[in-house]
């Protein structure tokens, strides 16, 4: 007489039930990484703005130029204000592409230049997911403020 090998129907059902319960708890934790990705993107933009401002400032100091004289970085002229990039200069220095809220094929969304004045510029992915660059004054360095509460 042959001995049968394999799983019974009850055992298979129990495995499926256990996997279902585990996935019900685990799936919501890993389902939405969009907010984390937007937060990381906004923080990366803030870092790019800070770095570009400091590199342009260092170039101006190395040139011995006055505080409002444009500097050239990699063949590109950067407008300066009080020793740091102006609002128009930081766009060029940090190479920020902005425009309409367009979703590309890979799911990425371009930054929207929400508010732009001669004093500050705001780049946002969502209403409360943004970076604000405020140009330097005669007594203070530029300020890069990040808001990630709505990412």
From TrEMBL:
Membrane topology: Single-pass membrane protein
Cross-referenced Pfam families: N_methyl
InterPro entries per the UniProt record, alphabetical: N_methyl_site, Pilin-like
Claim: Zinc is one of the keywords in the record: no
Entry's localization field: Membrane
Annotated protein name in UniProt: Type II secretion system protein
Source organism per UniProt: Thalassolituus hydrocarboniclasticus
Lineage: Bacteria, Pseudomonadati, Pseudomonadota, Gammaproteobacteria, Oceanospirillales
PANTHER family: GENERAL SECRETION PATHWAY PROTEIN G (PTHR30093), TYPE II SECRETION SYSTEM CORE PROTEIN G (PTHR30093:SF44)
PROSITE patterns the record matches: PROKAR_NTER_METHYL
Keywords: Membrane, Methylation, Transmembrane, Transmembrane helix
Transmembrane segments: 7-27
